[in-house]
Design goal:
The protein is mainly alpha-helical. It is built from 4 helices and 3 strands, in the order H-H-H-H-E-E-E.
């Protein structure tokens, strides 16, 4: 537990403010079940609660970062034009993009297709 406390104290320096709130046991059933399991008071819980035994404490695990590579998407030129007014160098493509962009709009960073008789449609990538 001391290593977890040290990690928390180390991370506290990264925040401007901190608030600690005590949650009553009656309102936090997950923590209550874990407390009963830790003390061994409830053997009946062993049949209903999945338990994972860690080989190493989670505090000792190195941080893993997943990298995401952005692939080109059909929406990129439209979003770029609507957000920044940037058109492609090719005049024919730029003309096409200018007129097709009138059918779309951005809302909270997401691209939607305008529609008159139905709700606006959220544009999605293949993934």
């Amino acid at each position: 537990m001391a290593s977890y406390l040290a990690k928390v104290k180390e991370m506290l320096g990264q925040f401007d403010t901190m608030t600690i709130i005590q949650v009553p046991r009656a309102e936090n059933t997950n923590a209550d079940v874990l407390a009963h399991l830790a003390t061994g008071l409830e053997e009946s819980l062993l049949k209903t609660v999945l338990i994972e035994v860690l080989e190493l404490p989670s505090i000792d695990k190195p941080e893993q970062v997943s990298s995401i590579t952005a692939r080109p998407c059909w929406m990129d030129p439209i979003v770029s034009f609507l957000r920044n007014g940037i058109l492609t160098e090719d005049k024919v493509e730029a003309h096409h993009l200018y007129y097709i962009s009138a059918c779309y709009f951005l809302l909270k960073g997401k691209l939607y297709k305008k529609s008159f008789s139905t709700p606006s449609l959220l544009c999605l990538d293949k993934d």
